[in-house]
Amino acid sequence: MVTNTSIPKLFSPHAAIRRLTSTAPNRVAFAVSPAAAQIGSFIAEKPYTPPSWACDLSPVPSHSFTLGQFPTPIHKWNLPNLPEGTEVWIKRDDLAGMELSGNKVRKLEFLMADAVAQGADCVITVGGIQSNHCRATAMAAKYVNLDCYLILVTSRLLVDEDPGLVGNLLVSRLLGAHIDLVSKGEFSKIGSVALTDLLNKRLLEKGRKPYVISGGGSNSLGNWGYIEAVREIEEQIQLSGDVQFDDIVVACGSGGTVAGLALGSQLSSLKTKVHGFSVCYNPGYFYNNVQGLIDGLQSGLNSHDIVSIEDAKGLGYAMNTAEELKFVKDIAAATGIVLDPVYSGKAAYRMLKDMSNNPTKWEGRKVLFVHTGGLLGLYDKVDQLSSFFGSWQRMDLEEFVHAKKALVRCSA
């Protein structure tokens, strides 16, 4: 485990309130950093000013909501069996909040501001049955007084049954989200755009004012969430003064996170190589997807020049091998970092596989791994994970019982 003393400057120092001794006797002065949150600033709308290096992108959002706990910390991650001289650090976007934790909240800060600006009274989005994005959207919508309609994709065998209360579903349903189920076959045949358009039409006919959010919050507006994250990383590096990253690694599930990171890295002072590990679809799909997202901001860049995308889907989206799940368990036990099984778990698993198979590619490099959250998805894997746990026992109280009996005899 890494101690704070080895990495004092990257633990979000500008988010802290520092206690300073006043010259006046018996008094304490508090120096509050510019990033410290004021009372009432959470769940508040604010004007948005882009980083200077992103001012030429278009369109630039005018406002955002404050929905996450930012900046999220960066610290060294003592992973086992790294190549010679390789360091892996971790950006803890899983700590951006509880119900809103992970990468989705950064996108939703901009998307919810746009929904409110357009006079919406509800939002629509789509995702898998255990979608982190859908759960986060339901929470963000409730924060800003909007209803939420979720189209959730499940198996053909379960599409006509109650979806249950496991993991992300529990939170979404606690929040009162309206849920429509479709089968994987229906989703593949009809597509997410047509499905959300259909629900949008039905709500309009009922007099509602819906706002459609694309899957994963991945569109040109949502991209600003991780453009802004690059500014945050840039500021943390400047405050640290002694850490520079050669690579950024992140899971790739809908393309928006990796597109924002790659675009921001290219335009800013970071100039780090961004690696996206695809947890669904093939790399070619995501190169095209990222290209569309950065074209939507008129960047003039080529996705192949700013990001490297590799396959990490394994058995398929949200499906895990025993080896992958054991990896998640072992990394938690070894480092204290709990990865999710759908996104960061697969990305970290493939990253370490690549480091093992191609050590010279990574030797001597400083790598920043972005943990995109999604821990509630672990609850859906309980049955598969249970075989890896066995270290429990009933506490032996025989010695205590004998001692108590002896004490009674002595007192008699």
Automatic annotation (TrEMBL):
Catalysed transformations (reactions): D-cysteine + H2O = hydrogen sulfide + pyruvate + NH4(+) + H(+)
Domain Tryptophan synthase beta chain-like PALP, chain residue ranges per copy: 66-373
Names of the cofactor(s): pyridoxal 5'-phosphate
Entry's Gene Ontology molecular function annotations: D-cysteine desulfhydrase activity
Compartments reported by the entry: Mitochondrion
Active site: 131
Top EC class, one word: lyase
Family affiliation: Belongs to the ACC deaminase/D-cysteine desulfhydrase family.
UniProt cross-references to PANTHER family, sorted A to Z: 1-AMINOCYCLOPROPANE-1-CARBOXYLATE DEAMINASE-RELATED, TRYPTOPHAN SYNTHASE BETA CHAIN-LIKE PALP DOMAIN-CONTAINING PROTEIN
Protein name: D-cysteine desulfhydrase
Taxonomy of the source species: Eukaryota, Viridiplantae, Streptophyta, Embryophyta, Tracheophyta
